Amino acid sequence: MLYRSFAASASGLLVLTIHHETVSAGWMALRPLFATPIYQASLSTDRGFENFNAELEAACTMLAQEDRAGRAWCEAHGYGGYTSYASLTDLPRRATVFADLKRKLDAHARTFARDLAYDLGAGRLRLDSLWVNVLQPGAGHSGHIHPHSVVSGTVYVRTPKGASALKLEDPRLPLMMAAPPRRADAPEDQQAFVYLQPTPGTVLMWESFLRHEVPPNAARSARISISFNYAWR
């Protein structure tokens, strides 16, 4: 017989433990291999978080109003709101609050890299890009991956009631050509899709090959987040 237990590691990773009991048919085992860890932490317990988050929100709102190149890109590509993804590549140098955020994210990225058992050699994970997302009501972001990166993620600044969750997709899904669907009551680690509902200060990181999307924002106001990529060099 098989049963599972979950425990949180010190770094915030959820660790699944498989327990085995012998059955009359003989000993058997189910070995979970090739795991896809999701790193989850929160800045909300940091000292001065409320002021820091308010400053982040003000900076994101200012960019959405003043970044004309970014707004033009959003209009041309049908993005329902504002993103600095295609227009600004130097946010940590533009505002102190983004530089402070980078330092916080760097620490979390180091922890995640250790938990993933990466052998970085003489290199390290370096913040490669950082961009603002202001998603208006009804807008979403279709499924995608982040090529040329190692670790990607998002920190959430404003998540009003009804704001979109992050939808994660089982990376094996395209290979399951003849597999039946999973039961509705299947455990989270066996679902084809998992939805994570963030709150202000939530930090989520994942390996960049993992396909993810943001369903349409059902809130009555904007959902604000800041996404990022880390490269190995």
Question: How many distinct beta strands?
Answer: 12
Low-pLDDT residue spans:
1-6, 16-20
Number of domains: 1
CATH topology: Jelly Rolls
CATH-derived architecture: Sandwich
Radius of gyration: 20 Å
The biggest sheet amounts to: 6 strands, antiparallel
Structural class, please? alpha+beta
Structure report:
The structure is a single chain. This protein is an alpha+beta fold and 233 residues long. It has a single domain, classed as Jelly Rolls (Sandwich), CATH 2.60.120. It is 22% helix and 30% strand. The protein has 4 helices and 12 strands; from the N terminus they run E-E-E-H-H-E-H-H-E-E-E-E-E-E-E-E. Strands 3-10-7-12-5-4 form a 6-stranded antiparallel β-sheet. Strands 6-11-8-9 form a 4-stranded antiparallel β-sheet, with no helix packed on it. Strands 1-2 form a two-stranded antiparallel sheet. A hairpin with a 5-residue loop joins strand 1 (2-8) and strand 2. The chain is globular, with a radius of gyration of 20 Å. The termini are far apart. Residues 1-6 and 16-20 have low confidence and may be disordered.
